[in-house]
Amino acid sequence: MRIEQVHEDNAFVEHLMGQPEGWVTNLSLPRTGQLRALGNGVVPHQAAHAVSLLLDDLTDLLAITAPAGRTARRQPTGREADVA
Hints:
Layout: H1 3-16, H2 31-39, H3 44-61
Helix pairs in contact: 1-2
Protein name: DNA (Cytosine-5)-methyltransferase 1
């Protein structure tokens, strides 16, 4: 495997993880270190969705009214925590 191909493979993994180009591949890490950093990372889109769900639950828990025009992002599943 050529060096250029290895870099392209790591760049592809970087892209799949939703990171900007060069986020890990521009660091002076060996190939395995780059892949380890990418593999142990959190996909930004997944993290943003998780935080959004947590904020929705917190809003409901604290009975905070949503801004005008904002609709619920998800339907109840029946498995929500009963904190009353």
